[in-house]
Design brief:
Chain B: It is a multi-pass membrane protein. The complex is a heterodimer. In chain A, 14% of the residues lie in helices and 32% in strands. Chain A has two helices and seven strands; from the N terminus they run αβββββββα. Chain A is α+β, with helices and mostly antiparallel strands. Chain A has helices at residues 8-12, 76-84, and strands at residues 16-19, 25-28, 31-35, 42-48, 51-54, 58-61, 65-67. Chain A has a single domain (15-88), classed as SH3 type barrels, CATH 2.30.30. Chain A has a four-stranded mixed sheet, with no helix packed on it. By secondary structure, chain B is mainly α. Chain B has a single domain (1-408), classed as Amino acid/polyamine transporter I (Up-down Bundle). In chain B, helix 5 (67-110) crosses helix 6 (114-131). Chain B starts with a helix and ends in a 5-residue tail after the last helix. The chains are: A alpha+beta, B mainly alpha. At the A-B interface, strand 2 and helix 2 of A face helix 5, helix 13 and helix 14 of B.
């Protein structure tokens, strides 16, 4: 990403977060954390819900933001619903394609 | 053959979206009261939905991002949330009307009260959403829905005075004791029925489900330009049948049975059987579209995993939303509210909610970041802006007209 100028509000805020490896949809960029200590402010992290995604985890910024969330769990909500409700319905794990 | 089947997404969107319970009821109702004097609204609506759906389809094919994902991106979190609430409520209201429509079709076929069919209809919709492959459901319901062409054949068989119908179509304005106010109110209702927002949520999310890419732009366009005009033609035929049969007799249409009756007059029991099958497929297809769209809009706003291209457990919140919406539909219908009345309100509210979802798509369709070289041309933007004006006008006028005319009384 070196040298690419991005408009934080236009190119980052409210964009879809996608798992770079699996393609899973992980949430939205709710906020951007800036590092103001350096000469030019740089993006230090993305905030999604209560999770902080360090800028180093960003793999690609296109029409969506692709990340490699090494030790983050961004799908807690989905996991809870899966475990307690949807996963209990027969056929929840069947292939659709 | 594969090319032919690829167009079924458009046909299903059009049959389910264009000729759903809203269009069946509104077109017949308007035909009975105004003849073909509001036919121009259907034409305006078809062109509008073609523009809107084509833009969102092109955005999906070029960027892979469906409509509601982008609505939040362009409007921001707060305004986006407002658009979400408005669109979601309209879509839920439409879902309630469609489930009621499926149940009413069964009541007409069996004589058993629709309230008993309604939970079964909702359960069947859920089972299909849960188990059936996306491409299968669009093909099956799109093709069976084509049976509604019987309205066009029936109109022919009824042997109307074509000159008189043409005369009505070319002389817009109210007749008899009708006022300009009710005329305008039903113009907005027809416009809303034609451009219901969920059609576009479903169409663009369907593009992602079908994994559209750059090379699918042709498929996307043929879907739009075959599907929606076909739906518009069926709408006109439904209005025409009502104009021929009910207008001269001064009969008001307020049941689904009256909508279907012209085909029975033309072809007897066989006609009725065919039209009921068509109505079932169209309303059931629309119930699938609206229930999926309830899930699509919410999941895409929050960024959750959605879609039928993953296993249900992988998109658990998306499926949970659909289950809750279907359960809510059952509860609302159990209060014995008239599904036809729900339909009449839903199309007007649809007209109100439209600008909020249309504008972000128009902006993105002009953004090379998303579309590369496939952005809107000048001519397209000219018409797209005219429609933005029309949508705003309809949206602002909807509520005052609803109050002033007591919802078209």
């Amino acid at each position: 990403m070196a040298g690419r100028v991005l408009h934080a509000q236009l190119h980052l805020l409210d964009r879809q977060l996608i798992d770079y490896g699996s393609g899973a949809l992980l949430g939205k960029v709710d906020d951007v954390e800036l590092d103001l200590t350096s000469e030019i402010p740089v993006v230090a992290a993305l905030i999604s819900g209560h999770q902080r995604i360090p800028a180093a985890d960003i793999a690609e910024i296109d029409t969506a933001v692709k990340i490699t969330p090494y030790d983050l769990n961004l799908t807690k909500g989905d996991d809870w619903v899966e475990e307690h409700i949807i996963g209990k319905i027969p056929g929840a794990g069947h292939e659709t394609d | 053959m594969k090319r032919l089947l690829a167009v079924t997404l458009g046909i299903l969107t059009a049959i389910g979206g264009f000729v759903d319970i809203g269009d069946l009821v509104t077109n017949a109702l308007v035909g009975a009261r105004f003849g073909m004097r509001l036919a121009w609204v259907v034409v305006v609506g078809v062109i509008g939905i073609c523009l809107y759906a084509e833009m969102s389809g092109r955005v999906v094919a070029m960027s892979g991002r469906p409509v509601f994902d982008l609505i939040r991106e362009r409007l921001g979190r707060r305004t986006g949330l407002f658009a979400l609430v408005a669109s979601f409520l309209v879509t839920l209201l439409t879902l309630i009307a469609e489930i009621g429509g499926v149940a009413l079709a069964f009541e007409l076929a069996s004589g058993v009260n629709y309230l008993l069919w309604m939970p079964l209809a909702a359960l069947a919709v859920w089972l299909v959403v849960w188990r059936v492959k996306f491409s299968h459901l669009e093909t099956a319901f799109g093709l069976v829905g084509l049976l509604l062409i019987i309205f066009a054949v029936a109109l022919w068989k009824l042997g109307p005075d074509w000159g008189e119908l043409m005369h009505q179509a070319t002389s817009p304005g109210p007749i008899g004791h009708e006022s300009w106010m009710t005329y305008a109110y039903y113009a907005i209702a027809l416009f809303g029925a034609a451009m219901t927002p969920y059609e576009v949520f479903f169409f663009s999310s369907g593009g992602v489900e079908e994994k559209w890419g750059r090379k699918d732009l042709g498929t996307e366009r043929s879907n739009v330009f075959i599907g929606f005009p076909l739906g518009g033609l069926l709408s006109l035929a439904i209005a025409g049948c009502a104009a021929v049969l009910y207008l001269p007799a001064g009969i008001k249409v307020d049941t689904l049975g009256q909508v279907a009756l012209p085909t029975a007059v033309a072809f007897g029991k066989l006609g009725l059987a065919i039209v009921l099958l068509g109505v079932f497929a169209a309303t059931f297809g629309a119930a699938l579209e609206t229930s999926l769209s309830c899930g699509y809009t919410i999941a895409q706003y929050f960024g959750w995993q959605w879609g039928k291209f993953v296993r249900p457990r992988q998109a658990s919140r998306f499926h949970l939303v659909i289950v809750i919406c279907l359960a809510l539909s059952i509860l609302v219908l159990l209060t014995a509210v008239d599904p036809v009345k729900v339909t009449e309100y839903s199309v007007v509210f649809a007209a109100m909610a439209l600008p909020l979802t249309y504008l972000p798509i128009l902006i993105i369709a002009n953004d090379p970041d998303y579309l590369g070289k496939a952005t809107n041309g000048r001519v397209l933007n000219f018409f797209a802006l005219i429609y933005l004006g029309l949508l705003l006008l309809a949206s602002i006028a909807a509520i005052p007209l609803m109050i002033l005319t007591k919802a078209g009384q």
